[in-house]
């Protein structure tokens, strides 16, 4: 059985404490998907020039945010690591001639554990975290994800964690989605559903409202999409599973790639 890959928006860290439509969706998603042997997460909050792979036996929980309620800093997600999966990932990167490095002792950042503690609250599935590189071209990011497509046949769930519209300077207090954010997400959706890579790879030139949706200082949140897509390069199907907004334009979306 081949497991799909996912792009999952991690929104605000406060999702870890919230009970809303999106958190309930993530809880149900974890129950509905085939139970993976392990999970590999490309996180927007690990942006490195050199492709990095976590190799720990056990994962710590990073509280890589500030100004939140004390309860946020008490949360832990003690999922085991998987040196075996990390080794397999390294083999695939080597086969793709991708320079990479191993990292130990870092722990899971909130881009990984906030969504995983909703999807898999018992923290029993091994997790390997992977970095992204916002300086690479979208085609390169997609190609890195494609190097790992065999893992889907090995019951490894590959997740890109970020946010398609993620501009903290544009956040408001309204519950009504901003039109520009919806238009941007709809443009992306049309390209994803048609697997129109040429246009997606030039999203920064062609997408409406792209400067608001993907600001120059926030590109790392958009690009996990390409890593997750690449992981389904052998089964080019995209399906939007969820779409909503917080604070007017913080996009909460989930896309499934492959079958």
Automatic annotation (TrEMBL):
Gene Ontology MF terms: dioxygenase activity
Q: Which cofactor does it need?
A: Zn(2+)
SUPFAM superfamilies the UniProt entry points to: LigB-like (SSF53213)
One family name in Pfam for this protein = LigB
Q: Extradiol ring-cleavage dioxygenase class III enzyme subunit B domain spans which residues? A: 6-244
InterPro entries per record:
Extradiol_dOase_DODA, Xdiol_dOase_suB
- Recite the UniProt keywords alphabetically: Dioxygenase, Metal-binding, Oxidoreductase, Zinc
Any transmembrane segments, and where?
Answer: none
Q: Which family does it belong to?
A: Belongs to the DODA-type extradiol aromatic ring-opening dioxygenase family.
Indicate what this protein is called per its UniProt record.
Dioxygenase
Task: State the organism named in the record.
Answer: Paenibacillus cookii
